[in-house]
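Tokens for Glutamate/tyrosine decarboxylase-like PLP-dependent enzyme. Go.
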Amino acid sequence: MTDVSADGVLAELRALRAGDLPTHGGRTLAYVYDSALPGLDELAASAHALAASVNGLDPTAFPSLLRLENDVVRTAARLLGGDDRTVGTVTSGGTESCLLAVVAARDARPDVERPSMVLPETAHAAFHKAGHYFGVRVVAVPVDPVTFQADAAAMAAAIDSSTVLVVASAPSYAHGVVDPIADIAAAAAAHGVRFHVDACIGGWVLPHGPDVPPFDFSVPGVTSISVDLHKYAYCPKGTSVLLHASADLRRSQYFASAAWPGYTMLNSTTQSTRSGGPLAAAWAVLRHIGDDGYRSLALRALESTRVLREGIAEIDGLRVLGAPSSTLLAVAASRDDFDVFTVADEMKARNWYVQPQFAYRSSPANLHLTVTAANHGQESELLADLRASVKAAVEAGPVAVAPEVLEFIGGLEPDSLTPEEFGGLLAAAGMTGDTGLPERMATVNTLLAAARPALRERLLVEFLGALYS
């Protein structure tokens, strides 16, 4: 690799970034969160730069980070019904917060030989990842097929002597639905089991929403909560907070090892070395926006979601799944003369990105919309383009896949998938040679939708490996 001037390196990076989805302007309705506040990026970048070289591994060596983290945790705890006993940790993101909640629950119960956790089938896949990593069996309980809310009675019935953790969402990512937190918390408490509320998305919005039932530490039985700062706190990625109701509950989250000749390793998260940059940036953003600012941002996003939800209900052929009470919408087709994957392609052609979600049990294929404060005021344009995209999808008709291709997919086994079979699927999807992803993804998504979940996982793992080759 040859040396390049600083200006040249930045020019290259800008050119590469030009091919990405936009992170500002409200047109990317997944993955990113935009406050639309001027100057916020510059503030965060400056704060990040001030602490980027600081190592969060040892707070006694860098006490500034200790102060910043305690400030951030106190802010989150105050917002989510905490008290003087509430403690927390800043993590790299929602997945790490969920992982740590699971490992803390597992390690607090060394008496359980084969630990399990009970969660609704709509809980975030991060908990399945935690189960895979930490050997905690996942007991996924079906949800109401219409509302997509967790069934509190069914979850209570699933708790047994092996259960170390119960999980619910506020809200669920797929449908934006808040589970019946109080009922589930009562069931967990009755069994003496920890109860985690995944508020990674809703934690900074729901406290400002109308008619939202209590979901935080004000609910008896809630023992931990995850809330992401890089979502609706509009902080740079990646920062999240895992809160515990008390220090006793947090203790098993920590890891210490003196079983080697170096320093005694002591970690509060899954990471050891941690840059202070993300923490400093989050602290600066929280301080700058303040309580009133966040309330205003939350109300803007909630109002935009309401307008979009009502507008989508008036588009012939579309329906919103469940009864979302936050800022997420799942939009499905109400007819079979078009498919939502084509709608996603048409929206992309109109410079909007909506995220396809595959059918799973009672949830049909749908489009996910993450609504942020940046969408406030542009609802009419989004709805007009969505209406035009449905019309174009109807004119195109459902994606047609040759019967022999569907038969081929049906005969594939995830554990014995060969490179030749994978190559055949890529060819069927129009992804051959160095062409990369096609401009339109409806055919690819239709093929993936035809694969059962285990096969889809394997196909996407192979595809990811190919991307990084």
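The chain is about 40% helix and 15% strand.
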